[in-house]
Amino acid sequence: MQAYAPPSPRPLRMGACACPACRRTRWILRPLDRACLRLLAGIGAGWAAVLLWEALQ
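Above: the chain's sequence. Below: its structure in token form.
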């Protein structure tokens, strides 16, 4: 039976865990994060362009 380990005062940063499951999850999520940020940036830029175009008409 394992002894209960109290939580460390410093929380683990995202991606600090090195177990295989966490590493695999991180490997899957990292490109998804980048793709989501790119998509959101593209949508924001598109709306800005549309609003600018409407303002200049």
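DSSP finds one helix and no strands in the chain.
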